[in-house]
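Database export, one record per block. Field names are fixed; values are copied verbatim from the stored entry.
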Amino acid sequence: MLSSPHIPTPSEELMRRYDVAGPRYTSYPTVPEWKQDFGTERYAERLDVAASAGADEPLSLYVHLPFCRSLCWYCGCNVVVSRDRRAADVYIDHVLLELEQVVARLGRRRKLSQVHWGGGTPTFLNERQLERLWSGIIRHLSSLPDAEVAVEVHPAITTSGQLTLLRELGFNRVSMGLQDFDPKVQEVTNRHQPFAQTRELLDHARNLGFSGVNFDLIYGLPYQSPESWARTLHQILELRPDRLAVYSFAFIPDVLKHQKRMPAEALPDARTKQGLFRAAWAAFVDAGYLPIGMDHFAVPEDELALAQQRRALGRNFQGYTVKAAQDVVALGSTGISDVGGAYAQNVRALPYYYERVCEGRFATERGIQLTEDDRRRRAIITQLMCNFWVDLGEDGTRDFALELERLRPLEDDGLVRREGSQLEVTPLGRLFVRNVAMVFDAYLRRAERPRFSRTV
């Protein structure tokens, strides 16, 4: 059984040595390795492979809803800023058209174990639009009785009526983006969200029967300090959600131009930033939460916590889960599917997405078909990132001998323990779990590396 210890304080030398650019490993191979020649036809072939799994094999469904009323300046998601809800009607038309094309390939495979609406801000859609989208989906697909049906919401714009409707439609989980309650941090990130408004929406969600209510926080934003962060953590614990995600802010203004609107000189340094995460870890663990994966926390009775205790936690582009199916179908612009042993991502620009769908073609822009080596490495990295443990087995110990040799310095630094074919990330190593996973990434050994955020 996994314990939930406090993380030791790393030395300055460790911080310097492991503060490098590296992937977050929401996928493996990571997105920079995906190819433009993986297009419509290749995606169709992979859907055919997924269909061969049979009618009883469930699917996961992700719907990307990119619209936001305003742009949060830290944001790294694909968003479309608009105040005209009529744009969402056009988008829904095309999402449902894409769905028809997908299910035509999936044959009798129509059951869902997981549904996730993300964005953007899904509650940009009004109640009529939310109901129309859901009705269009369930005309073709059916969610299992114990399915996880989740939606992301922005508490500052989500109404009680929208939340009531979503619950009536069958949604049972809700994730609220918070980031930070400090007024100065909210001002400089263009994310305004009063504490009282958040409390009101949370109380309403609980009264409706939503389970696994999640809050998203971000550490490393401009003007965050140990003192202001402590106040935010106190307010979070006053609300006591079921789950918490505490994400490291990825400051990459060369890629995300809107991040230049924030003062770079106000960003906390690596030591302070790591201290913010350690403060969150200590506050949540002391309050009875269990750490989940590298940056999530859950109450002990939550299914994520129970799964990690069994070392059975999983992860996909929608986050940590116990409901993820073998294949994930994604709809909408930039939606990423994981089907038939391949990743496939849709185009970003809405005009191109609409054009492709109207022509009866899939909107696939890039992707990659995993090799056997990719699948083995993905399994290892997933176990490390989710459960802080992996058993390579006798074959793995032999086949990954080079990686185990490269792991020795991390063992010497106290980040990982090896016992035979088993590897376990230590409490200290949890701060650097991305660095541990990078040892098994075959693509990082090339001379030219893609741009990633810092691991610390």
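Remark 1: The first strand starts at residue 59 and ends at 65.
Remark 2: The chain has a mean pLDDT of 93.
End of record.
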